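QA checklist item 7 of 12: single-chain prediction sanity check.
[x] sequence parsed
[x] length recorded as 391
[x] structure emitted
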Amino acid sequence: MMKLHHVLLMQAALVLAGCGNEQRLVREGIPEWVVYPDKAWQTITPEEAGVNDLEAWNRWVSGTNEKVKGDSWAGEDHSGTQWGVAIARGGYLLQTFGDPDFRFQTASLGKSFTMACLQLAIDDGLIASADDLIKDVWTGEGQLNHPYKYLNQGHHNSLTFSHLANHVGGFPITNGESWKACDNYDKVLFPARALGPTGFPDWANCTGDADHDNYAHAEPGTVARTYSSGGYWRLAQALTALWKRDLKELLDEKLFRTMGIQADQWDWTPGQKVRDDPGWYPEMPGYGLFLDPPYEIDGNVVRGGPGWVVMSAKNLARVGLLVATRGMWKGERLISGTGFLRGHGGGNGSHMTGVGGDLMVSWGKVTTSDINFDDLPVHLFVQQYSAIKLQ
């Protein structure tokens, strides 16, 4: 797919563009046939989407319908139609499975929303870059619940936004349940992530108390990447302090309002709610124990930077379209198209992403693990502009 993507981008760059809007679209690598959904999606048929083998497409749809069902990750119940998938091409809704309007918390998928808040801070000049020191904008003094956690103390002195965003900040905790046994990854739920007999990094010191241990155990940037929901929680706190506002309201204003995603159509679960709910993941009653205070900063609730965005597959596919266009929406740049804006998945079978260029496919899924983005038969799409439904 990536080879095709690069070829298509080269082809777009070689088009002899006219003036004005057409020239801008070619420079941005966005085909002229792309549309942007408002409150409701426009639909497209496989023929209009440029499917060049309808029989093969229909076989894929039929086979997928037979196998896809809801996930039951960590005791969540997604029987029946408590799950959904939405697939779009060029901003048109092409195919759905399950209930594409079903909303549920999407686990770690929300990390991509946290990264978007970070990129917007750079775009707005609140910080110069992701390499800025966090202590220069928020130390957490008098707010974090232990002085050794303050961001101007110990290893935190060199901690940057980038360190936390890229899981190299020296924060070792991924969930409170496995940390109680000083086992960083549960062998049943995370078999592929094990780092050894316990999955516990040798540079960390575990007391078994995830709240106590959520701090930088090693010099940031000097240790291998360790998936860290604890680090993303600290990033969410720092971004809330930096923006001096609720991060959900920030995304509503900067992105989603323009994209047709209404404020009441999605939520971003506060960290304290996850911390206080032992049934958040029924099979992991201590999951949220790493979510340490503060839960509000300057009166603004701290949202779940590690994840827990509540959104439907249809609206996740809109966010995937923003990924595919590298931050452009109806001719306006909403966010810089950097690595901070990218697809992301959640452990409970949720995902969103988009691929741009002349392919221009986006998708979202909520709580099903039986279909992945790589399963989409994008090789069946004709790549000529003329094959796509035009406005």
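[x] summary fact logged: Residues 1-27, 192-197 have pLDDT under 50 and may be disordered.
[ ] second reviewer sign-off
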